[in-house]
Amino acid sequence: MGKRSEFERVEKDFYATIDPNAIVPTFIERIRGKTYAEPCYGDGDLEDMLREIAKCRWRSDIRETVLSSVQMDAMEIDETLTYDCDLIITNPPYKKEVLLPMIDQFQYVKPTWLLLPADMMHNKYFGPYIKRCQEIISVGRLYWQENKVRGKDNYCWYFFPKGGEEGSDIQCKFRGRDD
Cα(25)–Cα(155) distance, rounded to whole angstroms? Predict the structure, then answer.
């Protein structure tokens, strides 16, 4: 949840990706026909929204979810588990102590798309990660509760290429929702 939310924070940052507006056309262009791993699977909402666009071949979550999802910490994901996946696509927890190591791990394993608050790119602690980010696609405001009330924060898809390191020649491109 956003920093200005009136909702009480949900345990382990489990916020379902239920707003179809998270899947913008520019993002669709980047992932169409690809296969992916979803290491923060939750109830599978993201896979449901991407079903006609890309194929999920690996599902895991820290908590027990559905039979096709493995219960494991996302930090345990590796190349052997995701050998038949082109990408990692997920809506991870936003708490920096959890998120930053996840980015390190995911980027080591596969090219990675993460749905994160747009403000993340402005945080000083996130600076080294922006230097490893190749593309950011604006999504806008989303809702995370069944009441369908849009939040007060904007979101983006952040793309981290496999093995990208701070100081490399990565030039991050920002794409608006209509690009």
Answer: 15
Q: Which residues of 52-84 are buried (b: 16+ CB within 10 A; e: fewer)?
A: ebbebebbbbbeebeeebbeeebeebeeebbee
pLDDT digits (tens, 9 = 90+) for 89-131: 999 999 999 999 999 999 999 999 999 999 999 999 999 999 9
Domain locations along the chain: 11-174
Is the confidence at residue 148, as pLDDT, over 60? no
Structure-block tokens of residue 81: 């588990």
Inter-CA distances, 80 with 33, 83, 109, 132, 163, Å: 21, 5, 9, 23, 16
Q: Does domain 11-174 have CATH number 3.40.30.10?
A: no
Instruction: Say which amino acid occupies 77.
Output: I
Cβ 89 vs Cβ 77: under 8 Å = no
